[in-house]
Amino acid sequence: MGFFSSKKKEEVQEVSKPQEPVRAAAPKVPVSTDMIKTPINNLSIIKENFKVKATIEGKGSLVIGGEYEGDITIDDTLFIEKGAKFSGTVHAKNVKISGEFSGTLYSTLAEVTKSGKLNGLINANKTSLGGTVDGVVRSIDSLEITKSGTVTTKECKSKNIKVEGKVKGRVVASELLEVTSGGSIEGDIITKGIRTEQGGSIIGNIQTYDEKIHSSETVLDEKLSSKSEENLDIDPEIAKLIKIKPDDMKKYAKKDESEIKRIPADKK
C-alpha cells in the first residue's frame, strides 16, 4: 500500500520592484520660425553702445546692435538686432530686421521679425513680414505677412502673396493671393487667383491681374528712381546692386518647399 504525502504549495509572494523616480520632462526647445538664421561665421559686430555714421562695403555678415546711419553693401547677411536702429540703404544677400529700419533694402531674402519695424522700401526675391511695416514691398517670388505682421503700404507686389496678419493698402499678386483665417486686407487688390479661408477678411475692390497692364505698373517711393519694372521676373537692377548676376540670383534664394497649392473648388 502506497502512502502519498501531500505538501502545501508554497505561497509565492510578489516582490514589488522599487518605483523609478519620476523624471521631469525635458523642456521643449522652441523651434525658430525665422526665415533667415542669425549669422555666426565671418561676422562683424557693431555693439549696442556704438553710434556709427559711415559707408561699409565688404564680404561676410554684419550685426548691428547700436545705431547706424549710412549705406551698407555686403555679400552675406545684415542683421539689425532688437533695439538697434538703422537709417540708409542696404545691398546684401540677406537682410533680417528685428530692430528699426528706415530706408531702402535690396536683397534675395528679406525678413522683418515680430519686434522689427520698417519704414521704407523692400526689393527682394523672397520676403517675410512679421513686424510693423510702412512702405512699399516688391518681392519677386513670394511675400508672406505672418500672424504678427502689420503692413501699411502704397503697394505690396509679388507672384505669390500669403496674408496671415493685417495689410492696409494696394496688393498685387500676379499668381496667387491667399488670405488665411485671421488674416485681413483692406485696400485695392489685383490678383490672378485668390483663396480665402474661413475667418479671413478682404475689404476693397478686386481686379483680375492682367500681365499686359499690371506687369509694368508699380508704385515707387518719391525718393527712388521712377523707372518701372517691365515684369515680375528677376529685376536686373536688384541683382546689379548686390553684385549678383541676374541669371545667378535664383541660386541664392532659398526655395519654399511648401508651395501654396491651388485647391479645387469642391474641396474648399
Structure in a nutshell:
The protein has helices at residues 211-214, 236-241, 249-252, and strands spanning 43-46, 51-53, 56-58, 61-64, 67-69, 72-74, 77-80, 85-91, 94-97, 100-112, 117-129, 132-145, 150-163, 166-179, 184-186, 189-196, 201-203, 206-208. It has 268 residues and is mainly β. The chain has one domain.
Walk me through this protein's architecture:
The protein is mostly beta strands and 268 residues long. The chain has three helices and 18 strands. It has an 18-stranded parallel sheet that branches. The longest helix has 6 residues, at 236-241. 36% of the residues are buried.
Instruction: Tell me, rounded to a whole number, the average pLDDT.
Output: 78
* Record field, number of beta strands: 18
Q: Report the principal-axis shape.
A: elongated
Secondary-structure-based class equals mainly beta
Count of structural domains: 1
Could you list the spans in which at least 5 consecutive residues all have pLDDT below 50?
Answer: 1-12, 26-31, 219-233, 253-268
Distance between the termini: 91 Å
What is the gyration radius calculated from CA atoms? 27 Å
Give a short account of the largest sheet.
18 strands, parallel
Number of discrete helical segments: 3
Helix content: under 10%
The share of residues in extended strands comes to 35-45%
Query: H/E series, N to C?
Result: EEEEEEEEEEEEEEEEEEHHH
